[in-house]
Amino acid sequence: MEKRDFTITAETGIHARPATILVQAASKFASDVTLSYEGKSVNLKSIMGVMSLGVGQNANVTITASGDDEKEALDAVAETMKKEGLTD
Amino acid sequence: MSLLLNGLAASNGIAIAPAYLLVGSDLSVQKQHTNDKDHEVTRLHDSFAFSRQELRRIRDQAHERLGQRAATVVDTQLAMLGDPALFAMMRQKIMQSGVTAEWAVKRTADHYLTIFEKQNDNDYLQARGTAMRDVTKRLLSHLLAVELPDPQKLDHRAIIVAQNITPTDTAQFDRRYVAGLVTDTGGRTSHFTIMSRTLSLPVVVGTKTATAEIKNGDLLIVDGIHGKVLVRPTEDEVERYRLLAGKFAREQEAWGAVRNQQTISADGRHFEVAANVGTLADLEDARKNGAEGIGLLRTEFLYMNQSRLPSEEEQFRAYKQFVAGMNEKQVVARTLDVGGDKRLGMVPLPAEANPYLGFRAIRVGLARPEILRPQLRALLRASVYGRLAIMFPMVATLEEFHRARAILEEERTRLSTAGVPLAQDIELGMMLEIPAVAMMADVFAPEVDFFSIGSNDLVQYLFAADRGNPQVAYLYQELHPAVLRTVKRVIDAAHAEGKWVGMCGEMAGNPLAAPLLMGMGLDEFSMSSNRILQIRSLIKKLNTRQLQPLVHRALNARSATEVTDLVRSAVQDLAD
């Protein structure tokens, strides 16, 4: 299992647009990918789950991936977060 | 008998076509039980399938017409419909409580909307809630077999009738089918009316009752020249308006003839007729209409729909396209003008009781130099690709201008020390929108290279009236002697110091104002591109010296109505 912590720096948090793009990125991989925030975990391939978490600015989140392509999945998600301006 | 609705003339032209109402149809649902749960699940399943099919089409069209960013808005809704968790929750409600698919959809949506609304995390424009509501509407429209109003579904020429229109709505219209627009609210300078003028669509706003009085398919005449809407017109009226539309089309053609000419008055004075632009599409329009320059480059587009500030590099690339795109013609870029009615997601500003009198434009730039500095660096770097000028918006005092100029000079020095090539002759000016500055114009004039009069805000501040509020919009009077005297004062003060004056508000493109502005010696008229040719052909016919008695009478008139009458009787072309 791959696991990484992130701090969301974007002022608007994970709002609709980056949530959509993150879900699209995670869904390309076979591994299970989860997003955890304040003790709650959701499937990062489920936009309803990601949106329900309400991740705002300065939130500390953890993303885990487990499966055959866990490393690639986590790298791709981290890359997308940076590209979308969610993290520094 | 036809019905006449009066509103504000917001975009020129005449259209005769059936109405297409862009208002929500009744999608209310009641709690109902079913005996055939499997049937309800099948119906739910079908509504998902149909909705996804529709959204894919909308997404592809948005992508083609507006690009990836606009398409992502639709992608969010597609991702929701493709999320097994959403379908599962709805199905569970049917299976457990035996309710109809409609009720399951509504309850599930309410569940999520409550969660989203509780999260007080400044989700920009409440985009999640909007997406959830849009998805719900679409599912319910299939379950209830009612049609959703959707400008993209239009497959025949029609006039759009709505309460109000968002910038996103305007961008989604297929121009081939939209003959005109009529709204209940909004003013002449709402975002969508400005946009409609670039698309040459006739628009009447502020009718108050259009959506209540007009039914889908009613024949309408939209007279965007006089601000009238005729509902279910008689044959005689249709005939009369066809003639008017013909006259308007001939005028348009005559204006086309001056496209590649310079704007020189009958007595040989050159006036610059320039364009206001805010996107690359606008730049294309400006070139098509023969703009002699860009009098206002709005830089806000770089900051819209973004989750973070645009980098210096991104800004540089964008400014370079505008500066290079005008082939050595001047491009006047305005630094970020946020605040007032322009809110941006990634520059959150505190809520204010009076945003128009509050923290906006250069006030934000001076307080947040981390926004202003990269923008100035990007502009300076773009200066070598053509003829760039820079102006600061909403300067109120000389001290503000000095502070902003000092920041610009620091960045200029920093860049040249680093060996970055910069143009030597970048003119630096300021927007003139605040009456206090007009009173002090003689003090500012030696310090600036030019003034650009932002007439929309100036008129608004002179009359203390919000142009977007239909109840006080009548006070927004561009032709009032108070405005003319203010403008005259500014022009005289600038000319005494050998500086030029432009105007980049709506007034610059108003044919009734043009003879007066010419007569007072305004040097540059900057406007929506679709107004350029009309104003140029008008200026070419007029003689500045012969206009002096008119200017004198207008400055001494008592009201805007008197001024309008004076102009109409003095200028043959403008006689109504």
TrEMBL record, chain A:
Arranged from A to Z, the UniProt key words for this protein are: Cytoplasm, Phosphoprotein, Phosphotransferase system, Sugar transport, Transferase, Transport
In the UniProt record, which is one GO cellular component term? cytoplasm
Q: What one GO molecular function would you report for this record?
A: transferase activity
Subcellular localization(s) per the UniProt record: Cytoplasm
Q: Give the primary localization class.
A: cytoplasm
**InterPro entries for the chain:** HPr (IPR050399), HPr-like (IPR000032), HPr-like_sf (IPR035895), PTS_HPr_His_P_site (IPR001020), PTS_HPr_Ser_P_site (IPR002114)
Q: What does this protein do?
A: P-Ser-HPr interacts with the catabolite control protein A (CcpA), forming a complex that binds to DNA at the catabolite response elements cre, operator sites preceding a large number of catabolite-regulated genes. Thus, P-Ser-HPr is a corepressor in carbon catabolite repression (CCR), a mechanism that allows bacteria to coordinate and optimize the utilization of available carbon sources. P-Ser-HPr also plays a role in inducer exclusion, in which it probably interacts with several non-PTS permeases and inhibits their transport activity. General (non sugar-specific) component of the phosphoenolpyruvate-dependent sugar phosphotransferase system (sugar PTS). This major carbohydrate active-transport system catalyzes the phosphorylation of incoming sugar substrates concomitantly with their translocation across the cell membrane. The phosphoryl group from phosphoenolpyruvate (PEP) is transferred to the phosphoryl carrier protein HPr by enzyme I. Phospho-HPr then transfers it to the PTS EIIA domain.
Protein family per UniProt: Belongs to the HPr family.
Query: What's the protein called, per UniProt?
Result: Phosphocarrier protein HPr
**What organism is the protein native to?**
Limosilactobacillus antri DSM 16041
Whichever gene encodes this chain, its name is ptsH
UniProtKB/TrEMBL annotation, chain B:
Q: Which cofactor does it need?
A: Mg(2+)
Q: Domain PEP-utilising enzyme mobile, which positions?
A: 155-227
Q: What is its main location?
A: cytoplasm
- Keywords, alphabetical: Cytoplasm, Kinase, Magnesium, Metal-binding, Phosphotransferase system, Pyruvate, Sugar transport, Transferase, Transport
Q: Which Gene3D superfamilies match?
A: Phosphoenolpyruvate-binding domains, Phosphohistidine domain, PtsI, HPr-binding domain
Give GO BP annotations, semicolon-separated.
phosphoenolpyruvate-dependent sugar phosphotransferase system
GO MF annotation terms: kinase activity; metal ion binding; phosphoenolpyruvate-protein phosphotransferase activity
Q: Which SUPFAM superfamilies match?
A: Enzyme I of the PEP:sugar phosphotransferase system HPr-binding (sub)domain, Phosphoenolpyruvate/pyruvate domain, Phosphohistidine domain
Any Pfam family matching the protein: PEP-utilizers
Give every Phosphotransferase system enzyme I N-terminal domain span.
6-128
Subcellular location field: Cytoplasm
**Which residues does Mg(2+) bind?**
433, 457
The residues the record assigns to binding phosphoenolpyruvate are: 298, 334, 456-457, 467
Q: Tell me which residues this entry annotates as catalytic.
A: 191, 504
* Known catalytic reactions: L-histidyl-[protein] + phosphoenolpyruvate = N(pros)-phospho-L-histidyl-[protein] + pyruvate
GO CC terms for this protein?
A: cytoplasm
- EC number(s) on file: 2.7.3.9
Q: Where is the PEP-utilising enzyme C-terminal domain?
A: 254-543
Q: What does this protein do?
A: General (non sugar-specific) component of the phosphoenolpyruvate-dependent sugar phosphotransferase system (sugar PTS). This major carbohydrate active-transport system catalyzes the phosphorylation of incoming sugar substrates concomitantly with their translocation across the cell membrane. Enzyme I transfers the phosphoryl group from phosphoenolpyruvate (PEP) to the phosphoryl carrier protein (HPr).
Q: Give the protein family.
A: Belongs to the PEP-utilizing enzyme family.
* Protein name listed in UniProt: Phosphoenolpyruvate-protein phosphotransferase
Source species of the chain? Limosilactobacillus antri DSM 16041
